[in-house]
Amino acid sequence: MPPGTVSSTRKKIKHREPGPERTTDKASPRIEKSAQNRSTNRANHVRRGGGPKTSSRPIKRPLETENDDQSPSVASGVVGKRVKTSAAAQQQQHESPSQSRSAVINQVPNEKLTVLIFGTGENGELGLGPKKKEALRPSPNPLLDVSDASALHVVQIACGGMHTVALTADNKIITWGVNDEKALGRDTEWEGKLQEINAGSGREDDDNGGDDDDDEADLNPLESTPKEIPIDSFPPNTRFSQVAAGDSCSFALTDTGHVYGWGSVRDSRGESRFRYDDDGELVAKQARPFHIQSLKNITQICCGDNHALALDTGGNVWAWGSNEQHQFGRRLVGRSSDPLTPRLVRVCRKKAKYIASGGYHCFAIDEHDDVYGWGANSFGEAGDAQTAGGNAAFVPPTKIADLCQKQVVVLDGGAHHSAAVTASGQCLTWGRMDDGQLGIAFTPEQLQEPTMIRLDERQKPRICVRPTVIPTVEQAIHVACGSDHTVLIDQTGRAYSTGYGYQGQLGQGSNDDVQVMQLIGGRHVKNQHLTWAGAGGQFSMVTGPAS
Fold first, then answer.
1. Predicted pLDDT at 81
2. Residue 237: domain span
3. How far apart are CA 175 and CA 186, in angstroms?
4. Exposure pattern of 196-217 as b/e (b: 16+ CB <10 Å)?
5. Cα–Cα distance between 440 and 447 in angstroms, integer?
6. Residue 357: beta bridge partners?
7. Distance of CA 30 to CAs 368, 440, 541, Å?
8. Structure pTM?
9. What CATH number does residue 380 fall under?
């Protein structure tokens, strides 16, 4: 769904105009690590440019039972139909992998992580249970405390728009946050009396500016508390190597290269879609994990708002979900027009070795360290300076000259901006800049350089069309982009943030925006060596090895 369209029934957000030219347009790891994702909901948690900051509260809605697909083999929640394929093709599309183990191609992470969260969790995004709804400074989640034997111990994590997916040390997939579109992959219907879950009230924590327990009614504890997806949702002996999250969709990658997905993606009309069943009926929301049979030998997955990418052992890139901003690198026509089936993206002549995604744009790095971008580019976020600033600009896979041969090891994108980290420790940002997303104090000379900066109709700097080094941070190792904010980790294990911060997603102890990359303080990060960051819509998180 394009930015500017409300994508969740939870909130009605006042959002800003996408720019002078109306456009229709989560976290990428280091190459050897897991990829993250961005979300449409994040694009909606912003204000109109230059306008007043307005608070937005969740709309309370009754819990309801929907006719969604509750298992990998039983399809309901039918809203459409397509021409049936052959019985053999249907069986190949939907059957689960054999219980006999395939060859292991992906390493299973085993290092336990300390997880620190910050931002607003009005819909359970912080995973602190039904009481705690805000953390203005990075705060530990007691339910994920490695020192507590009864807690869930995370080894890898992915931020979606308003939900989170994590992999634990004992091979569980846990989720929390908004489940309206079934992004949590488990039943969260709650009809009983709300029970108080002791996840830390924050009363004693001066970092978080007080207690908000009594601000509103309790949240649904089944959504706001990290809980496991039932193990019987997957074949026996399944081992997971990575999870990824989009706006309202989630995916899991196994050590043998299989991919499971659940939730939904949305088109430009706001209609939910996920897959077709054996009868050709459209399953709008996939409530439990579903094996995507056509994806094999996959080594990495990542998500945009409403699309997903996968990289296989042959260096091929696959895409599925929404293609309305050319996330597949091309238009789909004729028999190949079904976007819910993974399609090959013709990125480059050489094999790809790494993929990443922004909200509506994508990236790949080939084996010669050339970097390609494609998809939405109205603000130059896909890296093509020529079409940046145009109305509804979409680009096919195109080399980003300023990033080629620089040994880029991390890429990520937000709604309209992007960031990269090189092996030498440089962090470069580009795209939309009017909320401080890029974290750079541009010089007067740079601001007057038309090959670098594009101005809006008021002659205010709006777009940086060239990847530009953040000069105030040295030796970066990781970067993550929210819709309009950026979180960075340096080699010393410190975290920085910049951009739009009205929901506290910058972790700076306030709701203010930040224009230049600023160090994140607080007692919980003081003695923690951080190595990773993730950014959702109105929340963020940082992690480091547990001591």
1. 52
2. 40-61+68-72+159-485+514-519
3. 8
4. ebebbbbeebebbbeebeeeee
5. 11
6. 362
7. 16, 22, 17
8. 0.83
9. 2.130.10.30
